[in-house]
């Protein structure tokens, strides 16, 4: 909450006097406070309207000669609250609240005094880093890594020499269907998967050196794997032939007993 208020305050400070559409991002379930951008409510009888999507009047404030303005709620009453005399608080924001919120001031004519493009987003889902391929020699290590989320997946390759690494195809970025950002990049000798949107981010990070040493498909490890496989096959074959032998022996014994 504080974070958004601060961001917003800084924005207003920078753009005081403009009535551009200010983007505001809110996490689902949180509250957000929108300000009238310094509009004057000291003049008796002046009216400030808070509107949604240019048409629905949410709240009408009738200014009261310096006293607190009179508040009339119209549409979406349960969503709104007036705080600090004229600011609009949107409570427990849901995705359907997304849209344009504007404040207009009416004294002799109606002026738009503040306008916000509010977008309500869920926090991003976790991201997983998977090592797909590692080739490590004494002089270099090359690796391919995949970053995946519930809905999307990207991969990228890296080559590391003596001391430094580079990303073969440059930083990889994908905009997911939910308009989140999925990225793979190198930072400080680590591969980072970063899944982010305007209100949150998650990461999965692994040191390149660790990837190279732990996932190395070197000939030794490869032969080790093959050895395990051969052992398993031999054991299976042994068990199988033993059971066949036992079955045949039992059958034979039964025939002997019957005939004898
Ligand atoms: C408000 O406007 C936004 C953006 O134009 C739109 O996505 C949304 O459906 C509108 N909401 C309502 C209730 O009209
Ligand atoms: C690696 O380092 C050694 C000694 O520091 C140098 O001789 C060699 O050229 C380097 N190799 C690469 C591929 O940079
Ligand atoms: C992930 O991306 C977000 C948004 O671009 C950024 O703020 C954050 O610092 C990044 N995290 C890491 C670990 O790089
Ligand atoms: C390759 O693996 C060895 C250990 O098996 C490790 O010491 C070395 O640092 C790795 N090479 C690179 C370039 O990371
Ligand atoms: C927010 C977040 O997920 N941060 C993590 C980024 O990755 C590092 C290293 O894996 C973690 O220590 C952070 O907690």
- What's the CATH topology name of the largest domain? Immunoglobulin-like
Cα gyration radius (Å): 33 Å
Helix residue percentage: 10-25%
Series of H and E elements: HEEEEEEEEEEEEEEEEEHH
Q: Biggest sheet, open or closed, and with what strands and sense?
A: 6 strands, mixed
Which shape, going by the Cα principal axes? elongated
Q: How is the largest sheet built, in terms of strand order?
A: 1-9-8-3-4-5
**Total DSSP helices:** 3
CATH class label of the largest domain: Mainly Beta
Number of domains: 2
Q: What is the CA-CA span between the terminal residues? A: 93 Å
Question: What compounds are bound to the protein?
Answer: 2-acetamido-2-deoxy-beta-D-glucopyranose
The total strand number stands at 17
Q: Low-confidence runs (pLDDT<50, min 5 residues)?
A: 1-18, 219-223
Keywords: Glycoprotein, Membrane, Signal, Transmembrane, Transmembrane helix
GO cellular component, one term: membrane
Main location: membrane
Organism: Oryzias javanicus
